[in-house]
Automatic annotation (TrEMBL):
Record domain UBC core: where: 1-127
Similarity field: Belongs to the ubiquitin-conjugating enzyme family.
Pfam families: UQ_con
Organism: Micrurus paraensis
Protein name: Ubiquitin-conjugating enzyme E2 G1
Leader sequence residues: none
Length: 131
């Protein structure tokens, strides 16, 4: 899939490639999403794996961060996943980061180092979007 960076965010203008991998028992279990294009974001780990509630296995969260209704439900679609990912780009969840370094920069230096790293990723995504 291609994710276009949402307007009025640091990711605006970015063209980010990602893979959605569906398990055999989809839609009972969620797909996995991984950015192929480098992206600097608190909810995307350094390998590109997306960490948002909607992609987490159904049921109780053993860490207590998420309510069961925030996690995967078989009624979700590719469209609801994409909407959630675009929302994640616009409004990161710093309370439950997959990339602790990005989360720290987002909290402490959003308009400095964090913004510079995101801008570099956006430029790189534009250069490699159609390769």
């Amino acid at each position: 899939v291609l994710i276009i960076g949402p307007p009025d965010t640091l990711y605006e203008g970015g063209v980010f490639k990602a893979h959605l991998t569906f398990p055999k028992d989809y839609p009972l279990r969620p797909p996995k999403m991984k950015f192929i294009t480098e992206i600097w974001h608190p909810n995307v780990d350094k390998n590109g794996d997306v960490c948002i509630s909607i992609l987490h296995e159904p049921g109780e969260d053993k860490y207590g961060y998420e309510k069961p209704e925030e996690r995967w439900l078989p009624i979700h679609t590719v469209e609801t996943i994409m909407i959630s990912v675009i929302s994640m780009l616009a409004d990161p969840n710093g309370d439950s980061p997959a990339n602790v370094d990005a989360a720290k920069e987002w909290r402490e230096d959003r308009n400095g180092e964090f913004k510079r790293k995101v801008a570099r990723c956006v430029r790189k995504s534009q250069e490699t979007a159609f390769e």
